[in-house]
Amino acid sequence: MVKHLFRLDVLFVLLIVLSIASMFVGVSAISITDIFSLSEYQQNILFSSRFPRTMAIIIAGAALAVCGLVMQQLTRNKFVSPTTAGTTEWAQLGILLGMIFFPAISIFGRLGFATVLAVLGTLLFMRIITSIKFKDVIFVPLIGLMLGSVVASVTTFIAIRENALQAISGWMHGNFAMMTTGRYEIMYITIPMFIIVMLFASRFTVAGMGEDFSKNLGLNYKFVLNTGLFLTAALTAVIVVSVGLLPFLGLIVPNIVSIFRGDHLKNTILITALVGAIFVMICDIIGRIIIYPYEVSVGLVIATVGSGIFLILIFKRAKHDR
Amino acid sequence: MINVKGITKYFGKKPVVDDVSISIGKGRITSIIGPNGAGKSTVLSMVTRLLSNDSGEVLVEGENILTQPSDALAKKISILKQSNHLQLKITVRQLIAFGRYPYSKGRLTEEDERVIDETIQYMELEEYEHSYINELSGGQRQRAYIGMTIAQDTEYIFLDEPLNNLDMKHSVQIMQILRRLVRERDKTIIIVIHDINFASCYSDDIVALKHGKVAISGTKDQVIKKEVLEEIYEMDMNIEVIGGQQICVYFDEKCTTANELSALQKVKVAQ
């Protein structure tokens, strides 16, 4: 029954409906019936705040969910994601270093720093998990979480020393309230990256079957692995720089899609992107109405809902593996 | 024709494979046998470029495998390692479709779909086509994996312990499929196998390894001999001819007494 919801057409319609809802939920009352008679103020709100916000939600949700999907496939572990591999923490450290070395750094500069550190951090994580012998499904993400926490502590430490704690708190909790014209456009960088991920879908799936399996089929395993890790780290960096931390998203969305649609990326990549966008959209709308007219940051809503789903997944899989 | 010339592999300072030279004839089943730790799987991995060799070379039709592009080689040789318990939800059809990757890089053409359909039929997997491989029994799963190498449509097929964890019925089923592939499609098959009687009953040639070296390599009749096998496995062994097949009896000294031997013969014939 639920399985039928996980179809491209159904999800696409759902996303459109939610996007329209998102456009009309907020402090300044704009009703959908006003659409043909918008005042200048309403137009302004709609096009410089609500539309960018909705686009940012779709892009961030889709990108992080797809990142998790690709990382899980490449590491062959269902519990690896930008959050549980420490990628997001590395990206935050990158932003901070960028701001310290170049105080007047542009958003592209910050993105550059975040990407470099996120890529290096992900490579380090891969190094560690390929060299440890004990490869329990839960153990691998625990290493990532620990690594992430260490990096986050370093970030906080440097921030305190440099008096930059205020500045970085913005990247600790994801928030779409700041997404206005002029601030969200950087997120469109993810579109070409997303297209490359789509083109590599079959290759990622083959690589996920293992190194020997890939070599037998003549796939350049190392190249595909590195391409995938670079793309996921860069995508994560874009989202952290523009929106901030959206925990658990890359973890739970691919797992839910996998239950209903299997693990062949050709079949799941678009669905995962749509479910990711829908999930974030719902969480953001909840955050906007729960203490109306104030707002709860979307990161907090996702963390609350997400950690619950994450626990259910852990128990389900732990039972399954025994 | 595959020529392996003096390949050697060191793990640390110890040679696991030491100067192994063999040649593999076309259109035959060649079994690689030997005690645990003899280097069978390592040899197989080196011959199929999964593992680099420290010295020596492997020639497929006279061409060194390391100088050929990997994707071109994937249309000539395929290798199936012992299937590791995958948690991925991949259907039988998707798995078999992976075999077409060297040809279409993931964009299946009509020709690919035709090969996949035909392979599913050949392996009698129609019923399970859309089942996930982790939901199948060991025998069905092994058939699906072998189906993938068939879809890969290579002249040479290497299999690393394809009978691992299979019961007798499914082991025989797999070996019969391999025989059919040689007979009907003129494939060349090289398997690493532990069960010496399966090697004896189903192979044309046998390569026996011991301590990383070739102990003997030749036709089945040259290798399945009492003195040869006792030397390789360092245990007493008797060879009986049952129904035209050479069967090695090695369970216990008592096995050689007439009564129990005839009882054992019945068991083996039943297999």
From TrEMBL, chain A:
This is Iron complex transport system permease protein. One of its GO terms (biological process) is siderophore-iron import into cell. It is found in: Cell membrane. The keyword Membrane applies. One of its GO terms (cellular component) is plasma membrane. The chain crosses the membrane at residues 53-72, 93-126, 138-160, 186-209, 229-257, 269-291, 297-315. It is a multi-pass membrane protein. Pfam families: FecCD. Keywords: Cell membrane, Ion transport, Iron, Iron transport, Membrane, Transmembrane, Transmembrane helix, Transport. Belongs to the binding-protein-dependent transport system permease family. FecCD subfamily. GO terms for molecular function: transmembrane transporter activity. It comes from the Bacteria. InterPro entries: ABC_BtuC-like, ABC_transptr_permease_BtuC.
From TrEMBL, chain B:
Gene3D superfamilies: P-loop containing nucleotide triphosphate hydrolases (3.40.50.300). Pfam families: ABC_tran. It is a peripheral membrane protein. GO terms for molecular function: ATP binding; ATP hydrolysis activity. GO terms for biological process: iron ion transport. Keywords: ATP-binding, Cell membrane, Ion transport, Iron, Iron transport, Membrane, Nucleotide-binding, Transport. It comes from the Bacteria. It is found in: Cell membrane. Residues 2-236 form the ABC transporter domain. CDD domains: ABC_Iron-Siderophores_B12_Hemin. One of its GO terms (cellular component) is plasma membrane. This is ATP-binding cassette domain-containing protein. It comes from Aliicoccus persicus.
